Amino acid sequence: MQDLLVNADLDAAVADAEARYVASNPQSQARHLAARASLPGGNTRSVMWYHPFPVALSGGQGARVRDLDGHEYVDFVSEYSAGLYGHSDPAIQARMIEVVQGGIALGGPNVFEAALGAALVHRFPALERVRFTNSGTEANIMAISTARAVTGRSKVVAMREGYHGGVLTFAHGGSELNLPFPWLMADYNDVAGTEALLREHAGDIACVILEQMLGGGGCIRATDDYLAMLRRVTQEIGALLIFDEVMTSRLNFGGLHAVTGVTPDLMTLGKYIGGGASFGAFGGRADLMDRFDPTTPHAFSHGGTFNNNVLSMAAGHIGLTQVLTAEASARFNALGDRLRLAMQDRIDAHGVAACTTGCGSLFNLHFLPKGGVTPATVERADLRPGKLWHMEMMMAGQYVTPRGMIALSLPHTDADAEGLVAAFDRFLEDHRSILPKQGDMA
Ligand code: PLP
User: Fold this and answer.
1) How many A from CA of 393 to the centre of ligand 1?
2) Domain with CATH 3.40.640.10 in the chain
3) How many A from CA of 164 to the centre of ligand 1?
């Protein structure tokens, strides 16, 4: 009976929040309805959809964004981690304007691509050579395809609930649109199970691809044991280890592998590295990547009209060399740690069954009991508390993702973080009677 009442109240609270959200966003709603005439469901990027319609953004400044109805938000979406520099970094803006004025779509090597390559190789220990793509998805496709070509093997091990791009998605049992590689699915952090899988298919496995912290999968970190096992066993069976650092590279100046101390054979990058313009890159061991050297016989060919587009190359270069310094990286990741712990402190104070996972500038709020967050529990979680939180945070001027992921950008301040904690505390105070309690679900 108690459960039924809680469910009814939670459903009612979600319905009420949605009704207020609709009433306060008429322009976004009109845009959404009009967009349906040309875009399926008004949408061209699945993660940007949430019910009843997403707010449409009209601009951004620093760590703030504005929507069509004139609301201003503190931006904790940070373009799903790609907006690391915020919306108006002066050095990046100036470089982009200069580049646009100098001519784009030039159709030849430009002066920025090798400079960006050098900055990346200098920064990330696993990266001896690098090639550029247009997106993280493409980078992962190229890394996997490279592994298959150099090993002469076909099978690819990926993690359940992992995400490596639009055609490399393993949430909710995978997607019909996934590329038809012969996938073998492993359970993240299951040391014994994954080792058994690798040994069973030892001679057929080209590579294992994973994030050292599942980003889209809920900011769940790989254990040291798990990473050590993967490194050891892939070497023993002659398979390549690929770290997708499209999201996680922001967590430390040298990427997350510089923290875990496990060096992959290949790694991929994307998101913020293009300074806010489209970007992807794959690279790693020189002996593998040099197969792309066009001056050698039988070199692999890798095309891509916009691989070296001047905007991404120039903005990316100035961002990495002048803006995202070691100090800036340490500062904003430390701010993220403080924010995550402050949110956990409010959760504990209210006794709600919720917790935060992740580290540094990228973390996730889950309405799951503390200590109980795995890819499988995230997959099965009741979505209503998170839905309510999302709607209420948006109406409180905090731009957050529907799935609870929070990403900081360099312009975020302590005051921004304190504002989010205060709004979260009010939410917990107002709704704790209808949210699951710590202990209820353990
Ligand atoms: N890999 C990870 C870990 C990601 O989070 C994403 C995007 O969210 C991708 C790859 C795909 O990158 P893109 O959206 O640039 O194709």
Assistant:
1) 25
2) 90-322
3) 5
Please write the tens of the pLDDT for every residue from 125-165.
999 999 999 999 999 999 999 999 999 999 999 999 999 99
Integer angstrom CA distances of residue 303 from 82, 180, 246, 272, 400: 24, 21, 20, 22, 36
Q: Residue 281, CB half-sphere, CA atoms under 13 Å: how many?
A: 32
Report pLDDT digits (tens) over 41-97.
999 999 999 999 999 999 999 999 999 999 999 999 999 999 999 999 999 999 999
* Tokens 């300074």 found at: 275
Strand bridging mode 205-210 / 155-159: parallel
- The dihedral built from the CA positions of residue 130, 136, 140 and 145, taken in this order, carries a sign that is negative
Pick the CATH number of 90-322 from 3.30.2310.40, 3.40.640.10, 3.30.1780.10, 1.10.150.910: 3.40.640.10
Structure tokens belonging to residue 162: 């992992």
- Regarding the beta carbon of 135 and ligand 1, being less than 6 Å apart is answered yes
Residue 280 in contact with ligand 1 by CB distance below 6 A: yes
Q: Pick 63-84+325-431's CATH classification: 3.90.1150.10, 3.10.50.40, 3.30.420.40, 3.30.300.20.
A: 3.90.1150.10
Q: Under a CB-based contact definition with an 8 Å cutoff, are residues 336 and 81 in contact? A: no
Find how far residue 311's CA is from the centre of its chain: 22
Which residues sit opposite 156 in a β-bridge?
183, 207
130 neighbors 282 (Cβ within 8 angstroms): yes
Tell me what percent of the residues of the chain surpass a pLDDT of 70: 98
Residue minimizing CA distance to atom 12 of ligand 1: 136
Residue whose CA lies nearest to ligand 1 atom number 8: 165
Tell me, in angstroms, the distance from the centre of ligand 1 to residue 189's CA: 21
132 lines ligand 1 (CB under 6 A): no
Atom of ligand 1 nearest to the CA of 162: 3
In the reported structure, the alpha carbon of residue 385 is separated from the centroid of ligand 1 by a whole-number distance in angstroms of: 26
